[in-house]
């Protein structure tokens, strides 16, 4: 039979030798293993991931820079096109005003010419009527003279 005392002594000696922290050759070996794993992880995983993140950050930074420069260029082009459009509208309005003025000038000239033509026609008609009136009066005078001579002759003969 196994003696209960022997079991307790074996158990007590095990506790005395390997407590919670046992500072024997395994501790430096574990520390060395931890450092080697840290270096390997750093070389194999952390540096490539950091490089990928740095490249991505650089890509995003370049994209933002190019996008902001493109936006500035687009804004400048928009302002330029708006100015050109405003100038074109102003020129178009000036052209329309000039065309309206020219049309009004032409219309007023034509109206003035038509009035002059109408006045000329009226004066020509008035002169023609005066000439016809003079001719009619002369012919009436001559007819009156002839009739009066005929009446005189008839009266004197009677």
Could you please describe the fold and organization of this structure?
By secondary structure, the chain is mainly alpha-helical. The chain is built from two helices and no strands. It has helices at 4-17, 26-157. It starts with a helix and ends with a helix.
Give me the secondary-structure topology:
Elements: H1 4-17, H2 26-157
Helical fraction: over 70%
Nearest-integer average pLDDT: 87
SSE succession: HH
Shape: rod-shaped
**Beta strand %:** under 5%
Q: What is the number of helices?
A: 2
Question: Ranges with pLDDT <50 over ≥5 residues?
Answer: none
Instruction: Tell me how many strands there are.
Output: 0
Main sheet attributes: strand count, strand direction, barrel closure: none
What class, by secondary structure content? mainly alpha
- Alpha carbon gap, first and last residue: 212 Å
Round the Cα radius of gyration to an integer and report it.
64 Å
Keywords: ATP synthesis, Cell membrane, CF(0), Coiled coil, Hydrogen ion transport, Ion transport, Membrane, Plastid, Transmembrane, Transmembrane helix, Transport
Membrane topology: Single-pass membrane protein
Coiled coil: 71-150
Pfam family, one: ATP-synt_B
Write a brief structural summary:
It contains 2 helices and no strands.
């Amino acid at each position: 039979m196994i003696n209960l005392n022997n079991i307790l002594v074996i158990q007590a000696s095990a506790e005395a030798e390997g407590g919670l922290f046992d500072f024997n050759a395994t501790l430096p070996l574990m520390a060395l293993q931890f450092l080697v794993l840290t270096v390997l992880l750093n070389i194999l995983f952390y540096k490539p991931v950091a490089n990928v993140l740095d490249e991505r950050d650089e890509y995003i930074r370049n994209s933002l820079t190019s996008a902001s420069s493109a936006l500035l260029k687009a804004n400048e082009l928009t302002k330029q096109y708006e100015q050109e459009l405003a100038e074109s509208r102003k020129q178009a309005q000036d052209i329309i005003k000039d065309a309206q003025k020219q049309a009004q000038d032409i219309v007023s000239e034509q109206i003035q010419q038509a009035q002059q033509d109408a006045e000329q026609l009226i004066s020509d008609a008035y002169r023609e009527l005066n000439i016809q009136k003079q001719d009619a009066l002369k012919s009436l005078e001559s007819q009156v003279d002839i009739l009066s001579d005929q009446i005189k002759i008839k009266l004197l003969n009677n």
